[in-house]
Amino acid sequence: MGHKYASILETVGNTPVVRINKLGPPGINLFVKVEAFNPLGSVKDRLALGVIEDAEKTGKLKPGQTVVEATSGNTGIGLAMVCAVKGYPLVVTMAETFSVERRKLMRFLGAKVVITPAAGRGTGMVAKAVELAETHGWFLTRQFENEANADMHSRTTAQEILRDFEGERLDYWVTGFGTGGTLKGVSRVLAKERPDTKIVVCEPDDAPMIASGIAQERKPDGSPVASHPVWKPHPQQGWSPDFIPKLAADAVAMDVISQLLRIPNADAMRWSKELARKEGIFAGISSGATFAGALQVCAVAPQGATVLCMLPDTGERYLSTPLFADISVDMTPEEVEIAHSTPSLWLQPAEVK
Questions:
Q1: Is the same domain home to 212 and 126?
Q2: Residue 55 sits in a domain of what CATH number?
Q3: Could you say which of 72, 154, 240, 286 is catalytic?
Q4: What is the dihedral of CA 50, 124, 209, 171, to 10 degrees?
């Protein structure tokens, strides 16, 4: 049945839960929540809308005021959409290590993108955003500490999960963490409404900050003082900056997490590709990582168990990353052979690379 929307912002949320039919083990009901169905392709569209509308309601954001945020890409893309609709100029700071297509998407949507040196890591791009906000009087959304981020997930993501599994088993909910908004916002609702559901959190094997048990050093406002000591660079973009966000630490402190899983980079890459090739689900590296964690859960879950895995974004955010390193632009030898199996329209050898 069709539906008319007042603006693109009304299409944020209500993402589908999809059964996995080929990649899950027999006897386990494995589902994924495909956040790429948000209008700009990621779970961060929820955050962007939530923090801007909260700032409007509380008067923190004035009409026409410039919005500024530090982002690995998806939050900035979501904010660019929201700000375009609502008429706010947007400036984002982003470390140079993140994929170039994210920069282009934000600029295409009208945002200004300030690139910070790789050596500064995530804490550096955050510090630059703070500096710009203080210097120019801009509104800093503070995605890593802003309670409106987690509140949006409690109001939307969590309620969608409760609705989709009403009257049914939901034994495990598997997620990663970026800002911690999804983790905190959903886990506190599940802990109250579905205490039987085990909450499983994944993080990169190269940056096991929560699993380390080492607390993040913070400023009074909750932002990080410096990089976490166990963090190392990794390709699972958006899946934890170089510090434990306050919202993620809040979720840990709630003592609702049943299990922490460390996901190797190779597994994240592998399962992103397998989701595309076996299930037709086009998702990014962090989605592949979360799915790898869900498969670990499935391997030990009792028969008949139901597992729900979050898939944060679309694979299109990763075209310039190692995820696509082995995907050829030109015809492969096998494709050339197929082309030559009929007599017409062959490329000349010089045109086949």
A1: no
A2: 3.40.50.1100
A3: 286
A4: 20
